[in-house]
Specification:
This protein is α/β, with parallel strands linked by helices. The protein contains 14 helices and 17 strands. Helix 5 runs parallel beside helix 6.
Length: about 400
């Protein structure tokens, strides 16, 4: 048993996925000896945090070869434009010379809207290649991991922040206590910390276990974030559910304990408790559901292939690494995966070595079945692929159960 990364108490294992490659470790050539690590997810019964029991060093995941670029999805572009508008409309409106800091700012997909409105801002992004893209988008960006030391550097150069925010980044940071220490240094006393990440409540309900991979160290709930905030003299004041990434939660936090708290915090925590997410027993069934989905999906793909049909994947997502490796789905079942991200095309998937081809290749191809690996963009993709479906093409989805549609 491992110790909790938040409070130091013993963690109880929920699912052991075995040895896994890096989720974003797409390779140009099939390696002889690929780096793998034990992917084990556990639960702390004291602070309620769901977390990876073993982790990978940050610089192995987030470096100059980092493959995830936010702006390749139209749905995410729209989401982050609204995210920026929310900051300008609801949080900093009326403030004198506001300063907005975003952690894990990627290619500037959100902050470019803040920059266009001449609002003082700073992106904190550890991956060189996407930080360069952000600067090309006119976004003021530093290359760093955010902690107390980074916060002090920012404070000395720019002053205190009105907003510190992040999207799909807090769950990546193993030493998250150091982030909160940095927030305490950099955030104004009346400032707001808010961030959104995949919501463990949705993951358990939908059985969307592919959200579990090396980059996602933590899987947050209102229960665990409330405890984490308290440890650092802060208060969870609001929660807003988001549909992105198959179900995410946005958490709002302020310094001190006398802030006005939204009723939504109590409402969501009550829902979490009804699902027994404050107890290890609430996660026992999840383990069985994971195994059942993998078995059902593999059996379906084998059946389709035996009938003489071809199957391709849609979306070379980082999260599909967990699904493909744990279910042992490789190029014998999936001919290739199409994607629009330039840094992934003509590479192979981590661990399973399925070739990745351009979207244009897929459009010209004539396949009968598509495994929708980018399932969290299902609505956007189904609208886009009307012609494929009209000529009889079928999509295979797998959460919460395997469906052909």
């Amino acid at each position: 048993m491992r110790k909790c990364k938040i409070c130091g108490n013993l963690v109880k294992t929920i699912v052991n996925f075995g040895k896994m490659p890096l989720a974003n470790g797409f390779v140009r050539d099939i390696p002889k000896d690929e780096f793998k690590f034990p992917l084990i997810v556990g639960f702390c019964p004291v602070c309620y945090m769901v977390q990876l029991e073993e982790t990978v060093k940050p610089n192995q995941m987030f470096n100059e070869n980092y493959a995830f670029i936010s702006s390749t999805s139209n749905a995410m572009a729209k989401h982050f434009e609204e995210y920026a508008n929310h900051i300008m409309r609801d949080i900093i409106k009326g403030k004198k010379n506001p300063f907005v800091v975003e952690l894990g700012s990627n290619d500037g997909i959100m902050l470019k809207h803040i920059a266009k409105n001449n609002i003082m801002h700073l992106g904190v992004e550890p991956s060189h290649n996407v930080a360069e893209l952000a600067r090309a988008n006119g976004v003021n960006t530093i290359e760093a991991f955010f902690n107390k030391e980074t916060a002090e550097i920012i404070l000395n150069k720019y002053g205190k922040a009105d907003v510190i925010c992040g999207a799909n980044v807090m769950c990546h940071i193993e030493n998250i206590n150091s982030v909160y220490e940095g927030v305490n240094v950099l955030l104004k006393d009346d400032g707001v910390l808010f961030f959104e990440d995949p919501y463990i409540y949705d993951i358990v309900l939908k059985n969307s276990f592919d959200q579990i991979y090396d980059e996602h160290v933590f899987y947050f709930s209102g229960l665990s974030i409330s405890q984490l905030a308290k440890r650092h003299g802060m208060q969870l004041i609001d929660m807003k559910h988001q549909e992105v990434h198959g179900g995410s939660m946005r958490y709002y936090i302020k310094k001190g304990f006398v802030n006005k708290q939204s009723k939504e915090v109590d409402n969501y925590i009550e829902k979490e408790k009804k699902l027994n997410m404050d107890k290890y027993e609430g996660y026992v069934k999840f383990k069985d559901n994971v195994k059942n989905v993998c078995k059902d999906l593999k059996n379906l793909l084998v059946k389709i292939k035996k009938e003489g049909n071809r199957i391709v994947g849609y979306g070379a997502t980082s999260k599909s690494t967990t699904l493909l490796n744990y279910a042992k789905i490789g190029p014998d079942l999936i001919d290739y995966i199409c994607d629009i991200t330039p840094t992934k095309i003509n590479k192979y998937t981590p661990g399973t070595y399925i070739p990745i081809k351009s979207y244009e290749h897929f459009v010209k191809d004539n396949v009968s079945y598509v495994l929708l690996l980018a399932w969290n963009h299902k609505e956007e993709i189904l609208k886009k692929e009307t012609r494929f479906r009209e000529r009889g093409g079928k999509f295979i989805t797998f959460f919460p159960k395997v469906i052909v549609e």
